[in-house]
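for the writeup, i need someone to sanity check this before i put it in the appendix. the sequnce is what the collaborator sent (i think, or maybe the updated version? ugh). structure was predicted straight from it, no edits. if anything looks off just tell me and ill rerun, i have time this weekend
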Amino acid sequence: MTTLLDELGIPPVGLGLWKIAPEDTAPTVVEALKEGYRHLDSACDYGNETEVGAGLAQAFEAGICRRDEVWVTSKLWNTYHDPAHVRAACLKTLSDLQLDTLDLYLVHFPIALKYVDFDTRYPPEWLYDPSAASPQMELAAVPLHATWAAMESLVDEGLVKHIGVCNYSSALIHDLMAYARIRPAMLQVELHPYLTQTSLLRTAAQYGIPVTGFSPLGASSYLELSMASEPESVLREGVVGDIAERHGKSAAQVVLRWGIQRGTAVIPKSTKATRRQENIDVFDFELSAEDMAQLSALDRGRRFNNPADFCEGAFNTFHAIYE
């Protein structure tokens, strides 16, 4: 059966590049491409796009793969939402990645922040002036429809093949579809068995929008940031272990397979070759309907990546985007 992901042409398992140290990024990209990865998920805010570009260039030169065989996603950061800055932000990413075009460019958050010039700080992150006596996020009065129109211009110009959004709610998707001249080609949101987001996935499906789940293994992405605790790991759930044992797979492989069988792409991150190989080796087994139901029943609405939580604690600014 053809899925929305198939129609778009995006591989269902990608390598997430968030939180990979710059010095580890280029070799990780090269090795991942050798291992068979053909989908890389990058972003300005990750602070390693120059190194991603170096890894891609090395892989292309070595004949590991061709450019047209690799799907590369990047994201527009919050400080560049003003239409006057969208194109420049995209060109900066393309330059860092050493690419002529992106396969997919996403609005990273539905949060517009005050512009920070490239020469002042790049990536600009969340705080407007980190050296201020009480540094805070400073919002910009830029409506999302204006940002989207500028994103559409990138497609018109041929700088990006597809555009989409991250961290949008159902309400924002409905609103976007009311004004989009070019329909979003992707919705990327946090998805794992503790946060199944069933209604949001149904909304995206109604509009024919494919979905990518970030942090598909849940808490593991957030332990080092003190945004999750070890007992919150879905991989420790007994039902996950039982299903893994029946299929002769790891707990992580079962959770990733659950995401894929829901029709979503998944973008796990790892700098360890054994983990990367495990994460991509999820196509030789299938979860039963009962397996899928048991995993989905773990849903507890646990969102690890929530601006309402981390913005206030880290950036002295409460800013909620979810109810």
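The first strand starts at residue 15 and ends at 16. The radius of gyration is 19 Å.
thx in advance!!
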